[in-house]
Specification:
three-stranded antiparallel beta sheet, five-stranded parallel beta sheet, about 25% strand, Rossmann fold, alpha/beta
């Protein structure tokens, strides 16, 4: 066996062995600080908390939006009483899951978004298709004055649509074969 073949075999073995290694993007402490910062930034940018509607995108965006609302409740109880909160299922608005059977989640928007400033919340912004579907679904509930996007992780340089977050917990660079996962049971964000 030649040296070049041995080198190729060793390189391929190394890649396969390290392919599933996790790299922590946010630890529990960093995740807590990031959620607090996002809650503060959202409230900093508004004059009237009664005009804000925070909507978590089902399923994973709801974990982020629940944590943001919990932080607003604990730190800013007066603002919490004014901010409307809902959950939006986008299953039937997606354009990238046709031909597959999907179970819908619950949409819980029991108020009008007409003329309000809506902040959509999701965990990871990747290609932008989830946000596009959320914008389509949102229009079924009225015409908001403004729509902003809040994400925990922004995977830059991978968009298929011209969508950018207004509030971002952390922006990362990653390659297409990598995945970002928010592990809420461990309270951390990993790249693998």
């Amino acid at each position: 066996m030649t040296c070049s073949k041995v080198f190729i075999i060793l390189c391929n073995t190394f890649i396969v062995q390290n392919q599933h290694r996790l790299r922590t993007i946010l630890t529990k402490e960093q995740l807590d600080i990031t959620i607090k910062r996002l809650a503060h930034q959202i409230l900093e940018n508004v004059e009237d908390a009664g005009n804000i509607v925070l909507i978590g995108i089902q399923p994973r965006g709801v974990f982020v939006s629940d944590r943001i609302m919990n932080d607003i409740r604990n730190k800013f109880p007066d603002a919490f009483k004014k901010v409307k909160y809902g959950k939006l299922d986008i299953t039937f608005y997606r354009d990238d899951v046709r031909g597959e059977l999907h179970t819908a989640n619950k949409t819980d928007i029991s108020f009008s978004i007409e003329g309000k400033n809506v902040i959509l919340v999701d965990d990871v912004l990747y290609k932008g298709r989830t946000v596009r579907a959320a914008l389509d679904a949102l229009l079924d509930f009225g015409r908001p004055n403004k729509v902003e996007l809040c994400v925990l992780i922004d995977r830059r340089f991978s968009r298929e649509l011209p969508i950018q977050p207004d509030y971002c917990g952390k922006a990362i660079d990653s390659i297409m074969s990598q995945k970002v996962k928010v592990e809420w049971d461990k309270d951390e964000v990993v790249l693998y």
